[in-house]
Design brief:
Elements: H1 2-12, E1 19-24, H2 27-40, H3 44-50, E2 51-55, H4 61-68, E3 78-83, H5 96-100, E4 106-113, H6 122-130, E5 132-135, H7 141-154, E6 158-159, H8 161-171, H9 175-188, E7 194-195, H10 197-204, H11 212-221, H12 224-236, H13 243-261, H14 268-275, H15 282-291, H16 294-311, H17 321-333
Parallel strand pairs: 1-4, 1-5, 2-3, 3-4, 6-7
């Protein structure tokens, strides 16, 4: 996040490199940097002759290099953006020769999503020497809530921990999806708002009472009635509550609970640090640990794996999604 921001700040200051190779598993920042260049480097009057967008599936490295070597027309520089450049992965090493002596009046951008250049290759070293290589890494799930807080903080908003967790559990680690939903909230809410679960429910459509976070909490407390109410809600809204996501999140919770049992220092700060959770949620682990001793936690993890297999048609005797979840819930909580 900071590296991407710094690249954009440098471009704003006119510190522009001839090559930007944007690569990695997380497309969000690749798109952000590329969009900034596409929108801001050239004046509107300069773009007609001096800005070109290419697609990796439609061009060769030789064609890209040929375009990059041209001089701009009535402009200080030209901009060439190669989108979906990962489609050129088999021949991308051929860019080495150009990268060694890039055209100083050309700004060449590669959007190389979901892949990355081998650092040992000459092409990587040439680009790193004369341009910018940016690797956009996928965030781990336990990092996304902090990312949401920082994104909203930059817009003068704050968010309650439960509300950010609802977004993570519903949208996963896809930063583009999360950013789109945050934009909706920013549009409808006044600056300075503390975003609550109710705001999430009202504006994004994620139930604040019937979601995986509340299911996990109910199971931890052994609140059988609440847990059953939630899974019945899931059964009525299967598209928004896929079983594979529920099982995955419950498995993560119980794996963390196993780690909790093994901790000598169970202070809130240490638990939050070791488990990678917001301190706000530590009490949920304390409560669950009372209800699920270490041996039972191990059994629950085995039950979750069994349910996962059944959801994929292995040994489930064609049980429906709701039946698998009800059976799982009964075995976990008894």
């Amino acid at each position: 996040m900071n590296e991407a921001r710094q690249i954009i700040e440098d471009i704003k200051k006119g510190q522009i490199k001839p090559i930007y190779f944007l690569m990695g598993e997380e497309p969000y920042y690749i798109d952000k940097i590329s969009q900034y260049i596409e929108t801001n480097v050239l004046e509107a009057s300069e773009k007609g002759f001096n800005q070109v967008v290419m697609y990796g599936r439609d061009v060769t490295i030789d064609e890209i290099v040929s375009s990059a070597k041209r001089y701009p027309m009535m402009s200080e520089r030209q901009v060439i953006i190669v989108k979906e450049a990962q489609d050129l992965s088999r021949t991308i090493d051929k860019i080495e020769s150009y990268a060694n002596t890039p055209q100083p009046t050309t700004l060449l951008v590669f959007n190389y999503k979901y892949k990355k250049l081998d650092k040992r290759k000459k092409a990587y070293k040439a680009i790193a020497k004369n341009g910018v290589i940016f690797e956009s890494k996928k965030l781990y799930e336990n990092q996304v809530a902090d990312w949401i807080v920082k994104m909203l903080g930059a817009k003068k908003f704050t968010i309650e921990p439960k509300a950010s967790q609802m977004l993570v559990e519903f949208l996963g680690t896809d930063l583009s999806k999360i950013s789109n939903e945050l934009d909706k909230l920013i549009f409808v809410l006044p600056a300075g708002t503390i975003i609550s679960p109710t705001h999430i429910e009202d504006n994004i459509g994620i139930s604040k009472d019937f979601n995986n976070f509340e299911l996990r909490k109910a199971i931890g407390k052994k609140d059988i009635l609440k847990a059953n109410q939630i899974i019945n809600f899931f059964a009525q809204n299967p598209k928004n509550n896929p079983l594979v996501v529920t099982i995955s999140l419950l498995n993560s919770f119980f794996v963390q609970l196993l780690s909790y049992h093994g901790l000598k220092d169970k202070s809130k700060a240490n638990v939050a640090k070791v488990l990678g959770v917001n301190p706000y949620f530590v009490d949920d682990y304390v409560m669950a640990a009372r209800n699920y001793p270490m041996r039972k936690v191990s059994q629950v993890i085995a039950l979750l794996r069994e349910a996962d297999l059944k959801s994929k048609g292995v040994g489930g005797n064609s049980l429906g999604v709701n039946d698998i979840l009800k059976e799982l819930l009964f075995k976990m909580m008894h």
